[in-house]
């Protein structure tokens, strides 16, 4: 078991607290089957053209407390077999950006990892990321079938007002809704993100990990991804909890297999 | 916000992505900070092919930082050869580490060269949310 990064500094009134879904991502990414896949894909020596020798960029969208990105940064050597992994994150909640930045930096320091922690930026999904630069993409989306929050309040709710030193209850409720409410089938945000994935992943070695719950109709989601083109693959590589015979949560790995 | 982060960011407006002018984002009225970190020689050597060098030169020029070499350094440029000793980081490597990983934008703006939109950096955190995202 690789150590779980500390998030004791995070205020969970307004930032999503690590839960079963977060831990499923950690377990999946550090499972021998997945590290085997990643080590092969990112092994600098495995390809003659040396396109693999440049440091992999890991992007997590919706970092929340930062526990998943921090885990990857701190354990990059075990997961990728490399000392030069770059991490980048985004979150729509500016409080999460600050909290996650600290989580990642502390985890890298404590683990004496050689990973390079770039910034956690405040943004909508991966809209500000330069196309085809991401090698490993991770997304624990707002997947609960629940009405999306009222984004009209975002500007007012995403920062502390000058006169207040703390957030209000309404503000906290809104910020937490952003982290779990996924609209119809819990898929509205995930579908927007899936639409961006082919544009952000690097062409030869990009791979994405997206968490889904049973209500998201994961089999349908995977089938739709395979329709992106003949080179696209989507497979369940981790799961937890049974709900009436179905996996409650699962991690889908999305990648393209370019024939060489 | 580290300058290396800017190597991977572009204007968040969808219609800007196809325009070369949307990258890099141009710093405006930036207050810089230095946060020291350990130099990772293997990383510096490996990252070279991933750097958009001329755009990086543009950013450092716009920030008034010391000029970078006109062409991207090679892996050998990163190491100062010393007989019978461990590899030592060259001055070029130290300068590059300083620029990419220790120099950050604390406060200021980042402007898209295509649409002119200015993204704010507050306390080191860049805000790339657009009003359109939130409707
Ligand atoms: Zn633009």
Describe this structure in words.
- The complex is a heterodimer of chains A (260) and B (135).
- Chain A has 260 residues and is of the alpha/beta class.
- Chain A has one domain: Rossmann fold, CATH 3.40.50.
- Chain A has nine helices and seven strands, in the order ααβααβαββαααβαββ.
- Chain A has a seven-stranded mixed β-sheet with strand order 3-2-1-4-5-7-6, with helices on both faces.
- Chain B is of the alpha+beta class and 135 residues long.
- A four-stranded antiparallel β-sheet of chain B has the order 1-4-5-6. Chain B has a two-stranded antiparallel sheet with strand order 2-3.
- The radius of gyration of chain B is 16 Å and the shape is elongated.
- Classes of the chains: A alpha/beta (260), B alpha+beta (135).
- The complex binds zinc ion.
- The site of zinc ion has 8 residues of chain B, from loops.
Total domain modules of chain A = 1
Order of helices and strands of chain B: EHHEEHEEE
The radius of gyration over CA of chain B amounts to 16 Å
Percentage of residues in strands of chain B: 15-25%
- Calculate the mean pLDDT score of chain B and round it: 93
Order of helices and strands of chain A, N to C?
Answer: HHEHHEHEEHHHEHEE
Going by CATH, the architecture of chain B would be: Single Sheet
| Dominant shape of chain A | globular
Quickly give the CATH architecture of chain A. 3-Layer(aba) Sandwich
The proportion of residues forming helix of chain B, as a percent range, comes to 10-25%
CATH superfamily of chain A: Vaccinia Virus protein VP39
Mean pLDDT of chain A: 92
Biggest beta-sheet profile of chain A: 7 strands, mixed
For the sheet with most strands of chain B, the description reads: 4 strands, antiparallel
């Amino acid at each position: 078991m690789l150590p779980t990064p500390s998030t004791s500094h995070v205020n969970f009134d307004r930032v999503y607290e690590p839960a079963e879904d977060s831990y499923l991502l950690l377990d999946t990414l550090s499972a021998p089957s997945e590290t085997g896949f990643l080590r092969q894909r990112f092994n600098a020596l495995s390809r003659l053209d040396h396109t693999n020798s440049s440091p992999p960029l890991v992007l997590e969208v919706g970092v929340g407390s930062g526990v998943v990105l921090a885990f990857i940064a701190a354990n990059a050597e075990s997961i990728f077999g490399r000392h030069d992994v770059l991490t980048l994150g985004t979150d729509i909640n500016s409080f999460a950006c600050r909290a996650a930045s600290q989580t990642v930096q502390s985890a890298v320091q404590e683990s004496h990892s050689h990973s390079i922690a770039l910034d956690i930026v405040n943004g909508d999904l991966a809209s500000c990321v330069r196309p085809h630069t991401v090698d490993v993409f991770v997304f624990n989306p707002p997947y609960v079938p629940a009405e999306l929050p009222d984004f009209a309040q975002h500007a007012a709710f995403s920062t502390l007002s000058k006169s207040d030193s703390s957030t209000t209850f309404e503000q906290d409720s809104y910020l937490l809704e952003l982290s779990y409410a996924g609209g119809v089938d819990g898929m509205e945000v995930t579908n927007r993100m899936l639409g961006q994935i082919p544009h952000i992943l690097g062409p030869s070695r990009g791979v994405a990990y997206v968490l889904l719950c049973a209500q998201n109709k994961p089999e349908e989601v995977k089938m739709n991804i395979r329709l992106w083109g003949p080179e696209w693959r989507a497979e369940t590589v981790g799961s937890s909890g049974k709900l009436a015979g179905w996996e409650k949560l699962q991690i889908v790995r999305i990648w393209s297999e370019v024939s060489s | 916000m580290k300058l290396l982060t800017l190597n991977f960011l572009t204007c968040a407006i969808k219609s800007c992505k196809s325009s070369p002018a949307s990258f890099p984002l141009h710093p405006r009225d930036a207050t810089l900070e230095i946060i020291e970190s350990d130099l990772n020689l293997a990383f510096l050597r490996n990252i070279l092919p991933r750097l958009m060098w001329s755009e990086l030169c543009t950013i450092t020029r716009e920030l008034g930082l010391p000029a970078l070499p006109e062409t991207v350094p090679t892996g050998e440029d990163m190491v100062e050869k010393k007989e019978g000793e461990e590899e030592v980081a060259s001055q070029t490597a130290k300068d590059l580490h300083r620029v990419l990983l220790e120099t950050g934008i604390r406060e200021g703006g980042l402007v898209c060269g295509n649409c002119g939109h200015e993204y704010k950096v507050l306390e080191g955190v860049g805000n790339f949310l657009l009003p359109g995202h939130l409707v």
